[in-house]
Amino acid sequence: MDSSTPQWLHWKQKGDTKYNNGNYLRAIKCHAPSEENERVWWLTAKALYGLRRWRECAACLEKIGGLYAETGERREVLERCRVRVREEEGEYDWGGMIEGVRAGDGKGDLDCADYVGGIEVRPCAVEGHGRGLFTTRDVEAGELLLCEKAFGAAFAKDEEEGEGDEETMRVRAELAMGVFVKLVRNPSLREGFGELFAGDEVDEQRDLKGEVVVDDTFVQSRINYNAFAFPLLTSTSHQQILSHPAGISTDANNRGIWLRASFINHSCYPLVRRSFIGDMMNFRAQADIPKDTELKFGYISCLEDVETRTEMLAKYGFRCECQVCIAERATSPEKFKRRKEITKMIIELFEKSKAVGLHTYLDLLGQIGETYIVSPTIEPRHAVVVPIINIITGCQSSALHLQVIQLVQLLLINLGFEFRVTQDNFRVLRWGYLIDELVMALADLRDAYAALAQTELSRDAESVAKKCYLIMCGEELSWEAAYGAQSERRKGDKGGSEARWATEGKWREGGGPN
Ligand SMILES: C[S@@+](CC[C@H](N)C(=O)[O-])C[C@H]1O[C@@H](n2cnc3c(N)ncnc32)[C@H](O)[C@@H]1O
């Protein structure tokens, strides 16, 4: 230090350098020893904001406000702190967040706080499952259980610009580098990151003080087990899934890591659904869930067959023994063969536009059902989804509203839902397995009831459809554009449902039951 430099200025300059390098905690330590200097407090407040310590940041700004004249910039940060505190209580401006993602030019780095509702990390009772996320109270289907900002995220370039595997490698490397730099600059974040599952045999280095060394092993071992790809907006990928033949989202090449969400274990029959608005991940309950239940969700697509799922999960170092896997493994090869044959028969009927009545399709769908050895509440009957969706589309084109209603109800039963329908009331009693196609089918149910002037039933069907949409996409605001009165599908475009058939054969207009 130059002897002419006052001590407060020396600490301030040191703190500024640390702050500019993103080393917030050290910045606070440098700034704090100074007297109640306006600029020092302001930098301290900004450092606290960077560390996501909103309440302390607000207290700091209020302190400056009490000592010095107000400035617009400080008022703005104080207001942002207040918004963050409301977010911590579960009050989010979903519309503003969607706008933020759209304005982000391919990046979804949102300035939002985390919300944790009715869940906590606990050790699992099953040996080898480590820790898991459990409900601390009864929760209802659709409830927001977690909204968490990524600890680190890397965003893929546009499809055209990206170069397949090379782009995937770039995104992975960017994520690892971003996490590494963050941990090196902010020692206070190391403990939380270090808590993540890192495999059983990770060889971590310790320094002379016994503290873990932030190196490639420390970062990469945790990224391997906890990071995953995510879309910028799940509402967009929901539409893509419905309109792409193979049901694959083209918008999930970004990669991120979330600390709290990382404690959730896998099941092929998930109880929660994860969705994204930028780098904010939402977990919503997919059913009414009692207190003290372990929440699980699908690490991989649960629509794959059990061999593929087992292979995909092997990279996480475990074999899934959930209810679906157990049932599927116990099903004989003959039953799988029969399932395939019947599905093929249904496709052929469609392709040849044979004049068959709905009862023929219902009979064949029933035969698919007989190839399952347990109830759909245990193992959802995925094999009926594509046929039913296509038969619904066929019925719609012939204005067969009663048949649409019958088919959507059949789909619900095959996915493990239980419901009650009276003359003026349609209510879900038990939530089953949620898939993107179900939202579309429930919107069709709403339209079919409306066409038959069953207004109350149409309203109830829409409310169930909207709840499913909320669970799948995280928010309801985009519902109107996707399925509302002004949406393309209400104007005649059925959201590409015809293309769903293309996985096995091609659906043609005019096919289906008569
Ligand atoms: C993202 S972590 C989940 C949290 C982890 N249980 C913990 O204690 O930190 C993923 C790891 O959890 C374990 N795991 C997750 N789901 C499992 C399941 N269904 N059966 C057995 N182990 C599971 C596996 O070791 C997996 O690699």
TrEMBL record:
Region feature Disordered, mapped onto this chain: 486-514
CDD domains: SET (cd08161), SET_SMYD (cd20071)
Superkingdom assignment: Eukaryota
Cited Pfam families: SET
Domain called SET: residue spans: 117-300
Protein name stated in the entry: SET domain-containing protein
Species whose genome carries this gene: Stereocaulon virgatum
InterPro entries recorded: Gramillin-biosynth_MTr, SET_dom, SET_dom_sf
Regions of compositional bias (Basic and acidic residues) in chain numbering: 487-514
